[in-house]
Design brief:
The complex is a heterotrimer of chains A (about 230), B (about 180) and C (about 600). Chain A has about 230 residues and is an alpha+beta fold. Chain A is about 25% helix and about 15% strand. Chain A is globular, with a radius of gyration of 18 Å. The mean pLDDT of chain A is about 95. The chains are: A alpha+beta (about 230), B alpha/beta (about 180), C alpha/beta (about 600). Chains in contact: A-B, A-C, B-C. Chains A and C meet through helix 2, strand 7 and helix 5 of A and helix 4, helix 18, helix 19 and helix 20 of C. The structure holds flavin mononucleotide and iron/sulfur cluster (4 copies).
Chain lengths: ~230, ~180, ~600
């Protein structure tokens, strides 16, 4: 039997089920905690760190922390906003994100967080690292310049025998997203579409289509990311 | 009080940002009332004839000439604004960053699909020509920049709001729709 | 090649969980793990190639192109550099004609850098085909290169052997123990089997209670109460596992090296006692790749223990079954983090896991697992032999027992010291014969850089906790260049890269400190570094990122004047260098770059 627990986020009384991940529990209570790597029902990656909150005075990732009775969570403070903005800025300088040339622009979660935090210029120096794009698979492009290493594709996209189509290569600053050429060739249209849809940025793109939504009608042109979660519970 | 003076320039940019300045439509008449333009493609004044209050920079620095102009701007303007993605992060031209200059030049002048007519394999090298930098630099890596207005091109309303706020000293509140990176 | 590789895969039961061993074998036999090899391995294991590549590319002793017939790995960590690795590297480069990162045209020699190899008390040191060479200098390098050119096997280039078991026929290494001080616990007289016998005469709960009573806390650095860890684990259902952390990757520590050499039996006894306490049948010793030279010897200790019935089935007739296998690492500091160590033992990239679940709940093979440091297991044997109360009476009120320190750097007597917790840094410096000390790096790069004004602080979990690394830095050293920059380079290289912040910040901070060292820094850079260090500390998954900004944040705090002397007091300064930035394009068209600006 699932047990109900009570906790507070920035003073607001919330309820969830014991063991439920804090990001999800917060969303169920109409509180948006920003995420880039998390997806409900997936094993959490805990890698983008943008969901960092303060629980009883300690910084924790909301996507890997289960809610517990009596937790006092801080989600909205100058300190946390600064941390989150820094993470967004960091991702922008680490990869090569020239939004006007990107098909995901307007529908991109990273960009949307840049808008939310009104990033005018990153505080960090641009790395301008060369990352090669991979266009070898028949259905998708892998535009590595935009990968933020959220591991969503690694966790979700498998062939029919459960083998990985995406995996990491290297470590630290040489980290790269890698695609299995043999297995990628077997991807169905649906799987390719799914890969593109779960990629929070414009790294995985389906071939032969693009720029479908006109400017002005894209996901984040007018709506702030997370506002749907916040508005659901007013 | 005399009117604030504005200078503008396009470095490694496409003039799209300048187009966006013109996109403020009839507010341009109000702008002329508020400010005076000095060195700018808008009035075709080529060199600084006065010290300016605000310098607006479009484009990043891709060659030695850009660096030179940018430094001139820093010298003659009290406030510098990086306008648009190219000025802020190098933009489209910076897509060459990370690729060695030689590879870029070879592709552009010797090996690319559109250089069929360059049978003598000439690489432009006139004394008058500025030299290409190892990468395209965001303006703030060359000189101190005071404000940034993102977008490609930045929305005309954003430029308007920012310039008016600067000139009148009002606080700038930017609506969500105006800060966009594309 | 194909048949041989398939053969190797079959030796390990076609088990993807043994991918590390498979790759190690392929690397050893073919000098690399090529693309072709990956394809064969993937097919044989029915895995995707990218997953094999994921493991292959994570560890720095796996290479995609063949290393030289002699692969020379030069330790470029702080103490090695302080002791003269610069000259050693220079000599290697001169004689071989190639730079670090390259291979001679005839394929004879390849030169590489590697992080601390656990020989800080006998630097400069290097690994050649896995064989350790210590206290190198230009003359020795000349002899080594001559031997290589003559085709001598790396092992045969070792002419003198170290003391104790280092000279054992299965080890035959020049490594010295440098035991400078033996204390009452792990380095005291030892006789194999007493601990196991006593433990098996108690019930499992009794063993746990004894360890709890001793107040033993983890010796790997984090200081978690060992009895509590064992207790938590024992309460979980299902199969249990015991993992020993012998990754010893923190630059400056080498005390586990000495325990593995001189107290291997004690360690395995400790693991067995731990296994008995939590109800495990299997233990894994995760041994860092740099210690491959010990493997044959350690295997022999294991078989000796099996023959004495201290391991295996029905141990000492008490109905308890337990055995231990050795898992070799392949070069990755982060694998010392317990959950990364588990991932690596399962054949994967050494990426730390998210918690919860904790290893005691879901560890190796997703089963309840205890991971403990070598010294922790060794201490537990003594606790069982002599009682928790005996142990608890040693040390301070909060830090029971003794601690092995690995002391190196600018001092007369580098080596391993078993001290009682509570010694002050000042006393320690006297003990090792250190004078004119600028700073002591306590607990390695992830610890703190301590100034003389704090030398009366105590080495204890409640004051200056340490896994054992103590690096003495003399007054003549350039703290920022020789120490801080080197440490930041280390962290930037060793981050697993999963967390945005750890991956990027370590690089950004490394670049900032380099900027300051090169004289281009401004005051704001120092302030930015302090602020960014703080963000990094707050936003990472594992301890690596939580502590990797310490070289910067603790020196800014304790040695601010060193920074101030090096930065300019201006608001803005550009790093842009016109001359340098037009060099490439001027070269292409054949123009001098001097004319510009
Ligand atoms: C980056 C990193 C590296 C570590 N390296 C080691 C190591 O080499 N040896 C070790 O015993 N513990 C190391 N630890 C600590 C382990 O995670 C773990 O706490 C320890 O093995 C637990 O054993 P103990 O309780 O006996 O100390 C490391 C931790 C981190 C975060
Ligand atoms: S992935 Fe997002 S942030 Fe990156 S270029 Fe595309 S739209 Fe911009
Ligand atoms: S390709 Fe996309 S989904 Fe995959 S790790 Fe990169 S950003 Fe995430
Ligand atoms: S930012 Fe966009 S509009 Fe402005 S110069 Fe660059 S490419 Fe042109
Ligand atoms: S903190 Fe660093 S080493 Fe640890 S999991 Fe994150 S990226 Fe990996």
């Amino acid at each position: 039997m699932s047990e109900t627990v009570k906790f507070t986020i920035d003073g607001k009384e919330c309820q969830g089920t014991k063991g439920q991940l804090l990001v999800d529990a917060a969303a169920d209570n109409g509180v948006y905690i920003p995420v880039l790597c998390h997806m409900r029902d997936l094993i959490p990656a805990g890698s983008c760190r943008i969901c960092t909150v303060k629980i009883n005075g300690r910084n924790m990732a909301a996507c890997t922390t289960p809610v517990e009775e009596g937790m006092a969570i801080e989600n909205n403070s100058d300190e946390l906003t600064d941390i989150r903005k820094a993470i967004v800025e960091m991702l922008f300088v680490e990869g090569n994100h020239f939004c006007p040339a990107c098909e995901k622009s307007g529908n991109c979660d990273l960009q949307a967080l840049g808008y939310k935090y009104q990033m005018m210029v990153p505080r960090f120096p641009y790395a301008f690292e060369r990352r090669d794009m991979d266009a070898t698979s028949p259905k998708i492009f892998l535009e590595r310049n935009r990968c933020i290493f959220c591991k969503r594709c690694v966790r979700v996209i498998k062939d029919n025998e459960g083998r990985s189509i995406f995996a990491f290569k290297g470590r630290g600053t040489t980290l790269q997203i890698n695609i299995d050429k043999t297995l990628a060739a077997t991807m169905s249209d649906e799987l390719a579409q799914k890969a593109m849809d779960i990629c929070p940025v414009g790294c995985i793109l389906k071939k032969e289509v693009g720029f479908i939504d006109p400017i002005g009608q894209r996901k984040y042109d007018k709506k702030v990311i997370g506002s749907d979660i916040e508005n659901n519970h007013q | 009080m005399s009117k604030p003076i504005i200078a503008t320039t396009s470095l490694a940019g496409c003039f799209g940002c300048h187009m966006s300045i013109l996109d403020i439509d009839d507010r341009i008449l109000k702008l002329i009332e508020l400010v005076e333009f000095n060195k700018s493609p808008i009035d075709d004044i080529k060199t600084f004839t006065k010290e300016c209050d605000i310098g607006i920079i479009e484009g990043g620095c891709c060659n030695s000439e850009n660096v030179h102009v940018l430094k001139e701007f820093r010298k003659h303007c009290k406030i510098l604004i990086s306008l648009g993605e190219c000025a802020i992060m190098g933009g489209l031209p910076a897509m060459r960053n990370g690729i060695p200059v030689k590879e870029c030049l070879d592709e552009a002048y010797l090996n690319g699909p559109t250089v069929g007519d360059n049978t003598e394999k000439i690489m432009p090298n006139d004394e008058e020509l500025p030299m290409i930098l190892d990468k395209v630099y965001p303006c703030h890596e060359i000189v101190k920049i005071d404000y940034y207005l993102p977008g490609c091109a930045p929305r005309a309303d954003l430029i308007w709001a920012a310039v008016v706020a600067l000139v009148t000293g009002d606080t700038l509140n930017i609506p969500y729709e105006l800060v966009k990176f594309d | 090649m194909k048949d041989r590789i398939i053969n190797i895969v079959e030796t390990y039961g076609k088990d993807p969980g043994r991918l590390m061993d498979i790759l190690l074998k392929v690397q050893a036999e073919f000098g690399c793990v090529s693309h072709e090899a990956i394809t064969i391995i993937a097919a044989a294991l029915h895995m995707s190639e990218v997953d094999v590549m994921q493991t292959r590319s994570f560890y720095h002793f796996f290479t995609c192109r063949p290393v030289g017939k002699y692969a020379v790995y030069l330790n470029n960590s702080v103490v090695s550099m302080l002791m003269g690795m610069g000259d050693v590297q220079d000599e290697f480069e001169k004689l071989s004609g190639v730079k670090v990162g390259e291979k001679t045209a005839d394929g004879l020699i390849s030169l590489h850098h590697t992080a601390c190899i656990g020989m800080n008390d006998q630097e400069p040191a290097a690994l050649i085909n896995g064989v350790v060479f210590t206290e190198l200098n230009r003359d020795k390098v000349r002899a080594l290169v001559a031997d290589m050119k003559a085709g001598k096997a790396a092992q045969d280039m070792v002419t003198t052997y170290g003391d104790g078991n280092n000279a054992n026929p299965l080890m035959k290494t020049m490594v010295k123990n440098n035991i400078r001080k033996a204390g009452a616990v792990v380095l005291a007289e030892y006789c194999m089997g007493k601990g196991i016998a006593k433990a098996l005469s108690m019930d499992a709960r009794g063993v746990i209670n004894e360890v709890k009573e001793s107040n033993l806390r983890g010796r790997g650095g984090a200081g978690f109460p060992t009895g509590m860890k064992w207790d938590f684990c024992s309460r979980e259902a299902g199969d249990h596992y015991v993992l020993c952390n012998a990754d010893e990757g923190e630059p400056g520590t080498f005390k586990d090296r000495v325990l593995l050499t001189e107290r291997a039996g004690m360690l395995f006894e400790g693991m067995t006692i731990g296994g008995y306490a939590i109800g495990a049948k299997e233990g894994v010793l995760y041994l860092r790749n740099e210690y491959t030279y010990m493997k044959a010897y350690l295997e022999s200790v294991l078989s000796d223990m099996r023959s004495k019935n201290f391991l295996g089935n029905n141990i000492l007739g008490k109905g308890f079954n337990f055995d231990i296998r050795i898992q070799m690492g392949a070069g990755a500091y982060v694998c010392g983090e317990e959950s990364a160590l588990i991932e690596s033992s399962e054949g994967k990239r050494g990426e730390p896991r998210n918690r919860p679940p904790f290893p005691v709940q879901k560890g190796y093979k997703n089963k309840p697992t205890i991971v403990n440091n070598v010294e922790t297991f060794c201490s537990s044997v003594r606790i069982i032999e002599n009682g928790g109360a005996w142990y608890g009476a040693l040390g301070t009120s909060e830090s029971a027992g003794t601690k092995l320190l690995s002391i190196s750097g600018d001092c007369k007597l580098p080596g391993v010291y078993e001290i009682e917790w509570g010694m002050s840094i000042k006393e320690m410096l006297e003990m090792v014969g250190a004078e004119n000390v600028q700073a002591v790096q306590v607990a390695g790069p992830s610890g703190i850089c301590l100034p003389p004004s704090q030398f009366d602080r105590k080495i204890a979990l409640e004051d200056l906790p340490t896994g054992g690394s103590m690096i003495v830095i003399g007054k003549n050293r350039d703290l920022l260049k020789d120490v801080v920059l080197n440490f930041m380079e280390f962290f930037a290289d060793e981050s697993c890269g999963s967390c945005v912040t750890c991956r990027s910040f370590n690089m950004i901070l490394r670049n900032s400190i380099e900027k300051i060292v090169s004289g281009h820094g401004i005051r704001k850079d120092v302030e930015d570094m302090a602020a960014w260090s703080e963000i990094l500390r707050k936003t990472t998954r594992c301890g690596l990122g939580q502590t990797s900004s310490n070289p910067i944040s603790t020196t800014i705090k304790n040695f601010r004047e060193v920074y101030d002397a090096r930065v300019k007091n201006v608001d803005y300064q550009s790093d842009f260098d016109m001359q340098a930035s037009v060099m490439a394009s001027c070269e292409v068209v054949g123009r001098s770059s001097k004319v510009h600006e």
